[in-house]
Amino acid sequence: LVRERIPAPHRSISVTTRAPRPGERDGVDYRFVSDEDFERMIASGELLEWEEIFGHRSGTPAEPVREALEAGVDVLLELDVTGARHVREVMPQAVLILLEPPTLEELERRLRSRGTETEERLAARLSKADWELGQRDAFDEVIVNDEAERAADQVAAIIDASPQVGASSEDRDAADKPAKDTAEDTAKETEGPKNP
Q: What's the predicted TM-score (pTM) here?
């Protein structure tokens, strides 16, 4: 929904070692890679951030992000809290937006309706979500995702109000606003907290 509201942001496609969920497409939703390929990407410094979560590893390829920023294109990253913190370390000018569920009960309802989680994985996701929601002070903006259209409007407004991260320091100073790479935590309720 956010991409429908802002002009042509670059959406980073994460790499992951987990198997595709029903309906997910390689190269569109994620790049699905082997453990060996993921290990090679780590060793060669190809990832902006990565972590192990719920039995698999996921990360953000660095080069497409850098290329988009150098071309003056905004970049939208969908990350969990830990991934967002890693991005902040390497790109301090990033604007971090936390999407949080209205309640943990509603998050659980949404995760259950997805039908992809075992009880054990659901409990782990909910435990992590509880921790992530306690990290809200690490974010520049917090939006409650109780209604998808309204939340998307709010995210788009934040992105629109922020100059692009790749702008020169003079451009950023002239704009007198925070910079704009958007690392977006996806404790998004349709998918629950996830690693990219």
A: 0.73
